[in-house]
Amino acid sequence: MIYLDNSATTRVLPEAADAACRAMTEQFYNPASAYQPAVATEKAVEEARARLSSALGFTTEELLYTSGGTESNNMAILGSLKPKRGKRRILTTLGEHPSVYEVFRSLENEAETEVVFIGLNADGTANLEQLAALLTADTALVSLMHVNNEVGAVNDLASAAALIRRLSPDALLHSDGVQAFCKRPFARPPVDLYSISAHKFHAPKGIGALYVRNGFKFAGGQIGGGQERNLRSGTSNVPGILGLDAALAVYRSNQERWIAQMRTCKEKLAKNLLSIPDAVINGPAPEEGAPHILSVSFPGVRGEVLVNALSEREICVSTGSACSTHKKGQNRILTAMGVAGVRAEGTLRFSFCPFNTPEEIDTVSGILSEQVAFLRRFRRR
């Protein structure tokens, strides 16, 4: 099998699986308990928190463990807005993941909240000119993803943060960093809140984290036993946390080489596929943007038909976000970029991991070229 849907999820690294297994069979104690083995487990969790905080450039007090990207995004938005009183404006883009976009849509029903959606440029990045024009004194929150999960566009968080500081100094900036973390050089993002998800970088599912900058009121999420500084209650997911920690250690040791490998596969696939008549790349140029995401359209063939045809040949790709696979209708992100009609309908997303090879890319390219030519013979006239 050739797996090119790593933006949906990744294969767990052996080191991460081993760490999670040991946590389930040896370090299975509840870290909130008082006896010595539980205290040792709590120490392991806090040491893992320190290493993740270091990778992000934050302090340990600013990092909350969550169940993944969706919870982190929901908590970031709702937890930062809950303490704010009175009329407020909140902004996000039309290109956000559903775990951000749908939360903003739900807030449209609140009388005191004005929800504003910012458009995308043709390459999938947020339109910062629109952002600047829409920032006001009563803006409370801006949510801007770091890397677009459909086309790999990288948003300029530093420029967005500078605009917000100048035009809406009381506003908070949240970024969905799920597709960026580990795929971009490790550096402190210039934001107030930042979300990550472990299963996007070869750690187990069901664990993620949220950075919350010290210095502003934050209501948190789940209420209960007071874990995570009383901001996200619930028994700590020790197997997930230690699995994340192990995967991060391997990624940090190999990041430069792994990013180069993904970039090589992405550029090779782009070059190969552009030899197919009428094929067109969506988003940034292959040598730009994130190293692991490539969106290509094949007008004349429906994307889901190609997905099924490739699946029969044991090649896994997608038409876009896994969270939107079962929703019928237009692709919201492509539409916001101005991609429509047969081009949008014929879009595939390829997403790479460090273990994909150029040989796999050539195999996929050959089979896809054959399938596109074959299926175009049956398109409606």
Task: Tell me the series of helices and strands, N- to C-terminal.
Answer: EHHEHEHEHEHEEEHHEEHEHHEH
Main sheet: strand order:
2-8-7-6-5-3-4
Q: Kindly state the mean pLDDT as a whole number? A: 95
Number of helix segments? Answer: 12
Oligomer: single chain
Weakly predicted, low-confidence segments: none
Principal-axis shape equals: globular
From the 3D coordinates, which CATH architecture of the largest domain would you assign?
3-Layer(aba) Sandwich
Q: Quick one: CATH class of the largest domain? A: Alpha Beta
CATH topology of the largest domain: Aspartate Aminotransferase, domain 2
CA-atom Rg in angstroms: 21 Å
Q: Count up the domains.
A: 2
Keywords:
2 domains; single chain; alpha/beta; globular; 12 helices; seven-stranded mixed sheet; three-stranded antiparallel sheet; 381 residues; Aspartate Aminotransferase, domain 2; Aspartate Aminotransferase, domain 1
Descriptive notes:
- The longest helix is centred in the C-terminal third of the chain and has 36 residues, at 238-273.
- It is globular, with a radius of gyration of 21 Å.
- It has 381 residues and is of the alpha/beta class.
- It folds into two domains: 2-9 and 255-376, Aspartate Aminotransferase, domain 1 (Alpha-Beta Complex), CATH 3.90.1150; 14-249, Aspartate Aminotransferase, domain 2.
- The model has no long low-confidence stretch (mean pLDDT 95).
- It has helices at 14-25, 36-56, 69-81, 98-107, 128-134, 157-167, 227-230, 238-273, 303-312, 332-336, 341-345, 358-376, and strands at 2-3, 63-66, 88-93, 113-118, 139-143, 172-176, 193-197, 208-212, 280-282, 293-297, 315-316, 347-351.
- Strands 2-8-7-6-5-3-4 form a seven-stranded mixed beta sheet, sandwiched between helices.
